[in-house]
Amino acid sequence: MEQQADVQPVHATEAVRQVVSVVDRALPFTTMTCETSGATVWFGDVLAHVRAGADPLAPWRDALRGQMSDRHGVTVRPHVPAAFVLQWACEVVATPMAYAAVLGPWLLVPSPAGLGLELAPGLYPARIVVDPTRAGLSVDEEAGRRLERARTAYLGLVSEVVTAYAPGVKMSSRQRWGVVEDVWATSVRLARGAAGESVGTEPTRVSCCFIYALPGMRECAACPRHNRPRT
After folding, report:
1. 227 C-beta neighbours (distance < 10 Å), count
2. pLDDT of residue 227
3. What architecture (CATH level 2) is domain 10-197?
C-alpha cells in the first residue's frame, strides 16, 4: 500500500529540512537535499508507472549497460545492470530513513511523491531529494523500536517496485529480496559508522551485485560467492 504524507505546515517542513541537513553532512558520497531540479525523478512517478504495467527502470538499466559496455570494451551481460539498478533504487529509499533513525531520535518517512533522485554522469544516484512538505517526521526515543519502524516504512515504499521488477533476466526471490534486506542493513551500518559507532567487519550479503562479471573486477569482500563451495 502506498504511504502518503499530507502537506506539512511550515514549522514541520523546517524540522524536516533540519534533519535532512544532518543526514546530508553524514553521507560520504551522496548529497541529500530538499532542493529539487529538472533532473529530479520522483519515486511516486516510478510507482505510478509500475501500477500501469510499465517498466520505469528499464531506461536506467539500458543506459547503465551501454555505459558499462563502453567503459570495459565488452558487451556487459544484462544481469549486472539489473542488480545495480535495483540496489541503487532501494538505497534511495533506505538512506534517509536509516540515517535519520541512527543519527537522531527521528522517524523520517517521505511519501512516494516526496522522495526523489538525481543521477550522476556515472548513472548512480548522486542526489536524494526529500520534499519537506511531503515527508512525515516524528520522534521516537527508543532506538530499537525507531529502527524497526523505519525499516517497516522502507519496506512499505520499495516492496511494490521490487515485486514488479522485471529486468529481462532471471532474478531469484533470494536475490531480489536479498537486495532489499542487504541495502537496509548496509544503510544502517554506514549510518552507525557515521555516528562514530564501531561496526566491525562487514557481514556477508545475501544478494550479489555481479561486479565480478566485469573485466578486471573481482568479488567484493561481503560477496555471498565466498561462502559457496568450490568445485
Report:
1. 8
2. 61
3. Orthogonal Bundle (1.10)
